[in-house]
Amino acid sequence: MYGYITPDTDKVGPRDFAMFRAAYCGLCVSLKENYGQLSRYSTSYDMAFFTLVSLEATAPKLEFDNIRCIGQPALKTIIKPGPFMTKMSAISIILFYYKLLDDVIDGSGKKALVNLVKKRYEKAKALCPKVDEIVSNGYEKLRNTEINKVASIDMAADAFASILAGLIASVMESETNEAYKDMFTQLCYNLGKFVYICDAIDDIDEDYASGSYNPVLLSYPDFSKGKRKEYLEKYNEPLSFALKSCIYRTIECFNRIKCTEVHGILENVIYYGLEKKAEELLSSSQKLKAPRVSIPRRRLKSYRAEWKNLSGRPKEPASNNNNDGTNVAGDGDK
User: Fold this and answer.
1) Alpha-carbon distances, residue 272 vs 197, 204, 286, 288, 292 (angstroms)
2) How confident is the model over 310-326, as pLDDT tens digits?
3) Which of 19, 49, 161, 322 is the most exposed place for a label (fewest CB within 10 A)?
């Protein structure tokens, strides 16, 4: 996806970071197994976070493994490929494909990459047709806002938000507790809005240069080339409000969910990571570089034991559904 949903590594603990990395690297390995080496380029921090949310929402049977890879030769723990990770990798490929298509329509010149990914996308679509329908409908809705040059940031963000909300609902399709499902749907909806608004702000320079649709530029049309920082300072209040509204609603949704398996890392991202990203974005003088989530070398030693021990965690997280529409909090992450 985009790379705006990341943990705050200054505040993350060893166990929580190990779980985040296990999801990210596990997704990468699962993509390779199911769709080949090229598909690993679709791995994103946003999708790793969605994997953790889906893990919490459905409590699948998981196994962990310790591996090495050419990108990072040091031993690391991953969520082992299996039915759950196969679905997550299919979702990742489908999202990646539609993002590429959207970029081509916007004139970014990635048509060759779309053709390379198409066979992998077709395989993922055959595995998860409902997911493809959700993403396709969401991007069609998004395209309509662009064609009609909708100047409302909130309305434009709704189209992308509906994709993430639909995806988590699809992942939880066998869940019979509608109140429980709704908590996760609303959580992902607000995260989707946050991601879309971040991307619109991040792309103001290139969208201004190309004349591409951008609801931020349509809402505040006095942008000048080379004046990004001044522009963001001038409109800091409404843009900050738009982002923080999404963050606070996400926090409100999260507080209704008593997590059992990955509470710590979800809390870190939602409470600290989102706000840190918003502040970084609104103070930037240029488009943000691709994120790289890592622990400073001085803290690595204390983290390594937890990374190695993660594979010894229970292979089947306890069921977290309660009859009253909430989950039962375990003591693992508290």
Assistant:
1) 18, 25, 23, 18, 16
2) 654 444 333 334 433 33
3) 322
